Amino acid sequence: MAAKWRQCTRAMMLAPLLLAGCATVGQDFATHKVDRIRIGETTRDEVQSMFGDPWRTGLKDGQRTWTYGKYRWSAFDDSQTTDLVITFDDEGRVASYVYNTTE
To answer: Span 31-102: which CATH code?
Structure first.
């Protein structure tokens, strides 16, 4: 009986996702400001001022990375993704960045 209850509960939880047919992860950010980033000049504080808090943070080859992104998947339409990954040097300045979008 408990196994059937778990199956029923899972089905009820998944039903809205299947009916909606889409999922969104991440957060909006000011994509029109990407061209203001200057490698070796723009600081972490300036990046945070332009884009807000990063959606994710991490490390790449020992250097701090911040990711801004919004990812929308749909079973019925084209997916839409936009992301910006910024790598900072040891002094807290932009070492590199990658901006990608499907728009």
So the answer is: 3.30.1450
Helix (H) / strand (E) containing 44: helix 44-51
Residue with tokens 């990608």: 100
Please tell me the predicted confidence (pLDDT) of residue 8: 58
In this prediction, residue 2 carries a pLDDT of 65
CA distances from 49 to 31, 75, 81, 96 (A): 13, 35, 23, 18
This prediction's pTM: 0.73
How does DSSP classify residue 41? T
Q: How many residues are recorded in the chain?
A: 103
> What is the C-alpha separation between 6 and 82, in angstroms, rounded?
36
- Domain residue extents for the chain: 31-102
What CA–CA distance (Å, rounded) separates 89 from 38? Answer: 13
